UniProtKB/TrEMBL annotation:
<keyword id="KW-0812">Transmembrane</keyword>
<keyword id="KW-1003">Cell membrane</keyword>
<comment type="subunit">
    <text>Forms a complex with TatC.</text>
</comment>
<feature type="compositionally biased region" description="Basic and acidic residues">
    <location>
        <begin position="52"/>
        <end position="86"/>
    </location>
</feature>
<keyword id="KW-0472">Membrane</keyword>
<keyword id="KW-0813">Transport</keyword>
<comment type="function">
    <text>Part of the twin-arginine translocation (Tat) system that transports large folded proteins containing a characteristic twin-arginine motif in their signal peptide across membranes. TatA could form the protein-conducting channel of the Tat system.</text>
</comment>
<keyword id="KW-0653">Protein transport</keyword>
<keyword id="KW-1133">Transmembrane helix</keyword>
<keyword id="KW-0811">Translocation</keyword>
<protein>
    <recommendedName>
        <fullName>Sec-independent protein translocase protein TatA</fullName>
    </recommendedName>
</protein>
<dbReference type="Pfam" id="PF02416">
    <property type="entry name" value="TatA_B_E"/>
</dbReference>
<feature type="region of interest" description="Disordered">
    <location>
        <begin position="36"/>
        <end position="86"/>
    </location>
</feature>
<comment type="similarity">
    <text>Belongs to the TatA/E family.</text>
</comment>
<dbReference type="InterPro" id="IPR003369">
    <property type="entry name" value="TatA/B/E"/>
</dbReference>
<dbReference type="InterPro" id="IPR006312">
    <property type="entry name" value="TatA/E"/>
</dbReference>
């Protein structure tokens, strides 16, 4: 069973009605990534990428260096004057 041009046009119209014109590029990108991932998995390239990721995961990550901030002494606050005068 082959899909002819008329069937493809009908499918495209249905997809446009469901997702709308704005979401169509996102749907196409997701389909493309899915097909690419499937092709890599079927050809065995996916296993090589997993091995590379495992090697990266085994290396310990360096801790970010903290900045040293010096504390500045605060100026003395003036003492409140008492309202009682003798």
């Amino acid at each position: 069973m082959r899909l002819g041009p008329m069937e493809l046009i009908i499918i495209l119209v249905i997809v446009l009605l469901i997702f709308g014109v704005g979401k169509l590029p996102q749907v196409g990108e997701a389909l493309g990534k899915g097909l690419k991932s499937f092709q890599k998995a079927s050809s065995g390239e996916d296993e090589e990428e997993e091995k590379k990721e495992e090697v990266k995961a085994e290396k310990p990550a360096e801790a970010p260096k903290a900045e040293v901030i010096e504390a500045k002494p605060e100026a003395e606050a003036p003492k409140p004057e008492s309202s009682e005068k003798a």
